[in-house]
Amino acid sequence: MTDKQWNDLLKIVNGEKRESLPIGFIIDCPWLPKWYGINILDYFSNDELWLKANLKAIETFPDVTFLPGFWSEYGMCTEPSAFGAKCIFWKNEFPFAEKILNSPEDIHKLKLPNPETDGLLPFMLNRMMKAQPAIEITGHKIRFSVSRGPLNIASFLMGTTELMTTMMMDPEAVHKLLRIITDFLKAWHKLQWNTIPSIEGIMMLDDIVGFVGEEEFKEFGYPYLKELYDMKASVKLFHNDADCTMSIKYYPELGINLYNPGTHMTMNDMLDVTDHKMTILGNIPPRDVLAAGTPHQVKKAVKDLVKETTDHSRLMLSCGGGMPPGVSTENIRAFIEAAKAK
User: Fold this and answer.
1) How far apart are the C-alpha atoms of 333 and 298, rounded to whole Å?
2) What is the CATH number of the domain that holds 321?
């Protein structure tokens, strides 16, 4: 992200109106490797190809702010690997982390990982450090520390169904699990900040927040996310493209000032329920329109969103979630053209 893009983003999260509506996309392994023309395993294992793919994206679409920008990741294996999860990597499929907790009793055996040495995290951080000079030559900087959220990681360590069941049957065990994960995440974000001085923002992704009811969110989501977002970051980005209707009203209280939702609520409803205190990064349908639609359909969806949204000061145009697989260059250019249209 360039200095101009970062300064514009600061204005966006502060609710300042822009002459033209800003565009942002979250990009990572579901979209970038295939778009660039390589397989997913090469994207993960070859740092040169990882860097070239990210550079190609910023060169092809200079009008787009890519978030978090040069994301060093290994898909959903990233954080679970630090806890000892078996990580399965296929050549051209998304990786998967097998669960390590077979019962609530196993939680008591879980140890706090060290992000400096454990799992794939040292490789992530080393990739960023090695790529940093090449990134900065282009005028871009690494701006965000990034992780999945506590409930998301817990669902991989334990299994989603098992986690939900244990919330009801043994809530204290789940709190113990979330305590360990949250302490780990605080150390992981701190390490990223201390290692890369240009970082000024935090981004977390947690779709499991959208799988629980309001009371469960207040008990198992809110306090741990509050701890994690309670840091002096200028931009506090949260991604949950599952159903946000039960939890979104609490996001501004957590400190979140930029939110990437799914398509479960309209833009106006999201803005109203949060009292227009939080900028929304969204939210045309990612799969059915941005990936599967024609350029004409993409343009129409963007124009309709702009027309229907009453408060443009809290709107950053994107899709409802991260960039999905299969989005073409033509459709992204159609999106940009529609966003720039007066």
Assistant:
1) 10
2) 3.20.20.210
* Spans of the chain, pLDDT less than 50: none
Q: What rounded mean pLDDT belongs to the chain?
A: 97
Instruction: Map residue 1 onto helix, strand or coil.
Output: coil
The SS3 assignment for 225 reads helix
Q: Which two tokens stand for residue 134?
A: 């090449």
Task: State pLDDT tens for residues 171-188.
Answer: 999 999 999 999 999 999
Q: What per-residue confidence (pLDDT) applies to 53?
A: 98
Instruction: Please choose, from the candidates 94, 72, 27, the residue with its C-alpha nearest in 3D space to the C-alpha of residue 323.
Output: 27
Is 261 within 8 Å of 270 (Cβ atoms)?
Answer: yes
Nearest to 179 by CA among 223, 211, 216: 223
Question: For the segment 30-65, what is each residue's pLDDT rounded down to a tens digit?
Answer: 999 999 999 999 999 999 999 999 999 999 999 999
Geometric angle at alpha carbon 282, from 326 and 164, rounded to 5°:
85
DSSP 134: H
Continuous H helices in the chain: 3-13, 32-36, 40-45, 47-60, 121-137, 150-158, 160-169, 171-195, 214-216, 222-229, 251-254, 267-273, 295-308, 329-340
How many Cα atoms are found within 13 Å in the side-chain-facing hemisphere of 308? Answer: 17
Asked if residue 50 lies in contact with residue 335, where contact means CB atoms within 8 angstroms, the answer is no
pTM: 0.97
pLDDT tens, residue by residue, 105-133: 999 999 999 999 999 999 999 999 999 99
Interatomic CA distance for residues 156 and 163, integer angstroms: 9
Structural domains of the chain, count: 1
∠ CA 173-182-144, rounded to 5°: 155
C-alpha 277, offset from chain centre: 20
The sign of the dihedral angle between the CA atoms of 162, 168, 173, 175 is: positive
Range of the domain at 45: 3-340
